[in-house]
Amino acid sequence: MSINIQMIRESFDVARPIGMEVVSKFYEFLFQDYPQARPLFENVNMEAQKKQLLGALVLAVDNLDNPEKLRDYLLKSGKRHVGYGVEEDHYPLVGQTLLKTFAHFFQDKWTNELQNEWIKVYEFIANTMIEGASQKEEGADVLEITHGHIRSKAKDICHQILMESIDDQIDDTIRDVMRAKVRKVILEVLEEESTSILKKAA
Predict the structure, then answer these.
(1) Average pLDDT estimate for 83-105
(2) For residue 109, pLDDT beyond 60
(3) d(CA 67, CA 73)
């Protein structure tokens, strides 16, 4: 990663004292220029989101000379962002908005040279996060199957077995009442067991 780290850090020192103002303007520009990005933040606490973005920028700038640590952080971040609905096509929108935001605050200090250095920084960030997004964690497919399918299958099997037992051993007068009670117990047990399985898997 051939980046003028000193130039990046000196420029970012201008943004640090007004960090929340910078990230607020970032989201203002993002939603203004790319309204298609707004649905990604419909159920998001924006104040917390702004703090997270600022923290991520600070971490990136502070670790430009520690690429292994930065890369590890970005790979994990890329994986997390898949769960937020972020797709590869969204990264250029963020990059353009970030450059526009810096240009807004840096004004005459925003030179072509500085812009090119920030482009290199963002390309590293975006490419590494995209790489992270493409990596499936070991056991991810198993967890997906456990959560999405096994509970439903278990419920069906338990229900079928117990209903057959009830039909064989009780008469019609109490069968319907017993079915309702047994079904409730089954669901409660499955809820407890599925929660326990997922916690152990995590």
Answers:
(1) 95
(2) yes
(3) 10
Residue 81, token pair as written in the block:
């962002």
- Prediction pTM value: 0.66
The two tokens of residue 30 are 């993002």
CA dihedral 7, 99, 20, 29 (to 10 degrees): 170
Least confident of 19-23, 104-108, 139-143, 194-198: 139-143
Name the least confident of 89-93, 94-98, 146-150: 146-150
- SS3 annotation, the chain: CCCCHHHHHHHHHHHHHHHHHHHHHHHHHHHHHCHHHHHHHCCCCHHHHHHHHHHHHHHHHHCCCCHHHHHHHHHHHHHHHHHCCCCCCHHHHHHHHHHHHHHHHHHHHCCHHHHHHHHHHHHHHHHHHHHHHHCCCCCHHHHHHHHHHHHHHHHHHHHHHHHHHHHHHCCHHHHHHHHHHHHHHHHHHHHHHHHHHHHHHC
Residue 23 and residue 53 in contact, taking contact as beta carbons nearer than 8 Å: yes
Q: How far apart are CA 7 and CA 118, in angstroms?
A: 9
- Can you tell me the distance from the alpha carbon of 131 to that of 152, in angstroms, rounded to the nearest whole number? 33
For range 53-67, the mean pLDDT: 96
Take residue 144 and report the two structure tokens written for it: 């997906």
